Amino acid sequence: MPGSQQPKNYLHVLSLLALCPSRAAEVISYFAGLDSHGRNQLLALTDSHHVVLRALQPLGQAATRAGLAEIAQFAQGAINKERGRIENALKFLEVICREFECAGCPVAVIKTLDHWPDFGNDLDLYTPADRLHVTELLTRKFHACLLPRTVGDRLANKWSFRVPGLSQDLEVHIGRLGQAGEHVELANRFISRRQPKRVSGYTFQIPAPEERVFASTLQRMYRHLYFRVCDILNTATLIESRAVDYTELRAGADRGGIWAGVATFLVIVSNYLEQYRGAGLELPADVVSSALFGAEKLFARGRFLYFPVLPQGLALYTRQLARTVLRGDVPATARLSLLPPLASVAALAYGVAGSSERIW
Fold it and tell me: Model pTM greater than 0.85?
């Protein structure tokens, strides 16, 4: 199999395992044909897409049924290691959240628990509390070290910490959400409408279903412009639970100027899911009609599934900016206006140094 096709093939295998586990037997022969390097690459991809448990459990079960003990053991070893990492992270997360609440800092765990039973590579929190209060709490109680901030971090009002004993970084979004920190009213909903979630014996406060869709939309459609398999699976699970109030979803998204992004995000998820399950999501007609494009625009590049910056990404940005201007939100408009020049600088940095991390 040509080396240039490997990343695309790995994404296909991963999508089959995670989105349609009943078809795991279809990938056994492919997996058996990989050498140790190939298997480790595929394992690393499951980690990047936050589906280690949800992809490797069906793989291990299919391997056991096929009498392929080596593959079953490979899968189980990775699963055991990942469960240990997750359990350690949950212990820290529970204590950190408890200390926030005791200190009068209401907090919601965003994105991190959407992957359950898998887990992300960072612990993401949102709080409207004072930044100095948050920093003092984390450094005093947990001996946390504040990590260097990029221009993008400063614009988004995000602080990252390294906590001794915790393998993941702790990312705290304070008072604002969005690539430019343009969302204040929308961010407030993450606290005012938060709900308890019981995970592995711990109870956390997480955003309501509608805000969970907003968080995913902001991250995928307005920040990274690429999808991971977990984005498809997490959103499908949420929509299929029928927990989303679409009237509330549209009201909040319209107010934040991101309805086109929300609708497009959901249609992409539905389209991609249909490729593997034969049926997409049951979405309201106004969601489908409001989408600017679907999964036909996704293309595999490296580890992820991207959609084009031009014209698709630009169209979403300009619609958000226009809605923000019409709403008369001057601070948000000013913040959004900074994104094009910063993106240009980031592109230049990537071309010269091969990395845009100094910007974002």
Answer: yes
